[in-house]
Automatic annotation (TrEMBL):
This protein's name: Ferredoxin
Record keyword Plastid present: no
Necessary cofactors: [4Fe-4S] cluster; [3Fe-4S] cluster
Organism: Lautropia dentalis
Origin organism lineage: Bacteria, Pseudomonadati, Pseudomonadota, Betaproteobacteria, Burkholderiales
InterPro entries associated with the record: 4Fe4S_Fe-S-bd, 4Fe4S_Fe_S_CS, 7Fe_ferredoxin, Fd_C, FdxA, RnfB_subfamily
Entry keyword set: 3Fe-4S, 4Fe-4S, Electron transport, Iron, Iron-sulfur, Metal-binding, Repeat, Transport
Domain 4Fe-4S ferredoxin-type: 1-29, 30-59
Amino acid sequence: AHIVLDNCIRCKYTDCVDVCPVDCFREGPNMLVIDPDECIDCAVCVPECPAEAIVAEEDVPADQENFIPLNAEKAPKWPAITRSKAPLPGADDLNGTPNKLPFLED
Ligand code: SF4
Ligand code: F3S
């Protein structure tokens, strides 16, 4: 599956959801995740993310491997999102800030 990484947190641009052919993005308060049971690894979402926050599972950086189980754990709990919406306030300022995981809302 493809994995949403740390840099989505507090940005949530949502451009990714418009291109997913199987609607497998799930929406938390300040991050999206990908349902690994639904993702078909088409990779079309990767270049759409302004935060470069989506990678194939095999390309997840070593220091963000915890996002693999995080996507899997949140996906069944969060609702589907299939249309893009406005990013979170301050998204452009927070894009690129390292280690936003402590700010993840559930
Ligand atoms: Fe959807 Fe394809 Fe991205 Fe998987 S890789 S989340 S199927 S757009
Ligand atoms: Fe997050 Fe990027 Fe989508 S910031 S909401 S993965 S476009």
